[in-house]
Amino acid sequence: MGFGYLLYGFLMMIGLYVPTDYGYGTGIDAFPDLAGYLFLLTALLRLSAYAPGFRKGKIWMMALLPVGAVKFIASGLSLYAPFLPALAVILNLCDLLTALLCPFAFFFLFSGIYSLSNEVELPKLAKRARRAAVFGFVNYGMELFLTITALLALPLVQSGSMQIFRIVKQLVGVVYIVYCEIVSFNAYMYICYEGEESAEGPVNPFSAVLNRLFKREK
To answer: Is 135 within a domain?
Structure first.
């Protein structure tokens, strides 16, 4: 059905950076967001026939593709021109657009899972999908705050409290992505229509690991 692509898409959204010497948020992302967007868009294209939420999420995810492409190129250039101020501005603008677009894309994605879960009578999965849809606004709201302070070059950017807030944001982001993986994996395991993906068990090593760690009762 397309749920398998969600697993790889959210994995690529972890955000593990190889930092450069200039600015906040610069460097090469070992898990490029652009690759994550492509996997998630593939999933939404395959799932769009099953629920309105997937169709709406597809539009928001398409809007994220050029943002991800610009960010990937600018991150690469920052290795060769680390002290070019324009790159830091471009990267922060990309982060700003990401923080604005991602929560809506994920909201509609998980709204689709919520609808299908109710349709096939999986109330626990529906609750998890609803939490993931709402939690996205919290996660990216924190990201939006950090990005705006960086763009405006406010004095508090280098303060101790902001450093603590940034660490908390990173932890929240990791927890959110892991939770998205759990919800997506449960959808992959339990939501299945005739002739589509098998819901009987994992079909690859990555799914096998998730199956061992995160499999839940209906």
So the answer is: yes
What pLDDT score was predicted for residue 76?
A: 77
pLDDT under 50 in the chain at which residues?
Answer: 22-26, 194-195, 198-210, 212-218
- Its pTM stands at 0.79
Query: Residue 20: which domain range?
Result: 3-208
Query: What are the residues facing 28 on neighbouring strands?
Result: 18
φ, ψ for residue 28 (rounded to 5)? -95, 130
Q: Give the number of other CB atoms < 10 A from CB of residue 146.
A: 21
Query: What's the confidence (pLDDT) of residue 10?
Result: 92
Of 138, 161, 162, 137, which is closest to residue 152 (Cα–Cα)?
Answer: 162
- What's the half-sphere exposure (Cβ side, CA atoms, 13 Å) at 157? 13
In a domain, 216, yes or no: no
Determine, yes or no, domain membership for 215: no
Count CB neighbours of 94 within 10 A.
23
State the total domains in the chain. Answer: 1
State the alpha helices, DSSP H only, in the chain: 3-11, 33-47, 52-80, 85-119, 123-151, 160-190, 205-214
